[in-house]
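Running log. JK asked me to keep both predictions on one page so they can be read side by side. First protein, sequence followed by its tokens:
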Amino acid sequence: MNSGKTSKGKVLLIDDNELLQDLGKDILEHLGYIPVIASDGEEGVRIYSNERKEIKAVLLDVVMPGLGGLEVFRRLKEIDPKVKVLVISGYSEEKRAGELMKEGALGFIQKPFKIHQLSQKLQEVLEEG
């Protein structure tokens, strides 16, 4: 994994884009996290429900087929009102991303992002609350 370093914990990535899933997994491992990948909103909610005690933060895509980011976020909040969510989107000023922030998401990062940007935003989210 990451040359003997202690893990910083699990981070759940919920995104329907296979390329971003693979890239996100590699980046999270590089940063010292244990990535858990969900390819859609339903799977993300199911995984979070089962593993919420181990998951430190959630990276949540806004636009996905089926269960979209806002609905996923609301379900995660029902499971754990203190869930730490970093919103990711390919759209800069997306209305739905703004709604997620108003409802309690702790940060936003625009795709494509650089490793250091994700690292910084994720650290900010983990330090919240």
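And the second, directly underneath as requested:
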Amino acid sequence: MNEMSLPDDESPTVLIADDNPANLAIVVESLVARGFRVLVTLDGPEAIQRAQFSQPDLILLDVRMPGIDGFETCRRLKSDERTRNIAVIFMTSLTGSEVMVEGFSAGGVDYLTKPVHVDEMMARISTHLALRGMHQKLIAQNRQLQEEVLVRQQAEAALSRVRDGLEASGAQRTDELARANATLQSQIEERRRAEARLLASEFRFRTIAETSPVPLCITSMPEGHILYTNKPLRELFGVDYVTTHVANIAELYADLADRDRLVEQLRHEGSFRNTEVRFRRPDGTVFWAIATVRVATYDDAPAIFVGLNDITERKRIEQELVESREQLRELSAYM
């Protein structure tokens, strides 16, 4: 069997969206065996959110999925600036030119027929990853060229100002030019270091949030618009409910007075820990959770980070204990 070889310093990321366990197992096993980093989702909305957050190198998208199908999922990916340039390969058991035309119209770059043939899949993935690599290389070269042109323009402008303004000796002019060049180089290096620190910080945050078992979400401040949710939080409120039906975290509180109290506390103190809060699910059921909230920066703007811990079972047991004590008191009163 021919296997696609990967460079030692590369681990391409492939996002798979498929609700078929048999097909999913074959694809995941084949990719992992060849050194790929694999992300798995079971439906379209989750695939869109994971793609926005994780920025995979390629997406394998099942055509038939619950909720929105693969074609609509692809159209939404291609309409988003963050995911527009990620190659999408459809997986389907459907045949016919109409299906292929619809897939290409939605923005897909290729098709895999189910059941998937591993050699064919790896060949197609290899081709599109190579194309993506060349595209990214061209973008990087263009960016580098633009930076070099900008640096040159800045240096030439500085040199022109120095030359026009200097009337002193040649030694003095040389010294001032050297200082200007040194300052410019220092600014360039500082900018590169700042960009490297920012990328490292974003990577650490994404890794922690994606793998955390604690339900987490991030909202804008002070409006409370939901910016990000992880999978445990979506499961706590109902799959995809938060991302598709709720625009503001204020809609999730079961008690408005409770919400106003916590908002006021956050406004004055900037955070709170281990606070019991009641929330309401889309089906109307109310549950208890311990909330820990703090204000921090997200995408260069102030945001509210919320962590939850479901304590509904504990509250039920506490209520049963209270009722048992009341019953004992009533029995004692009649004895």
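Observation for JK regarding the second prediction: The two ends are 84 Å apart (CA to CA).
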